[in-house]
Specification:
Structural class: mainly alpha
Distance between the termini: 54 Å
Low-confidence stretches: none
Largest sheet: none
Strand content: under 5%
Number of helices: 2
Shape: elongated
Number of strands: 0
Length: 72
């Protein structure tokens, strides 16, 4: 099954750029992304959060550490 990549969608090459800004956006370079199951889902979600929302993740982690320290 193939799907159409939107101009502003992330490039499927994995470089993290928008399709329109990626140097590998020619039709010959397109490789359909690998479908991943549940194995490693938590690690992938954590990695995504750290790349997209690093400050919010760190703020929450510090808040949790302070809460744990208060109960100890």
């Amino acid at each position: 099954m193939t799907y159409k990549i939107g101009w502003n969608d992330p490039c499927p090459c994995g470089r993290g750029k928008k399709y329109k800004q990626c140097s590998a956006n020619g039709p010959a370079d397109f490789v359909e992304p690998e479908r991943k199951g549940h194995a490693g889902a938590a690690e992938r979600a954590t990695a995504w959060l750290m790349t997209k929302h690093r400050k919010a993740v760190w703020d929450e982690m510090l808040k949790i550490r302070k809460d744990v320290a208060a109960y100890a």
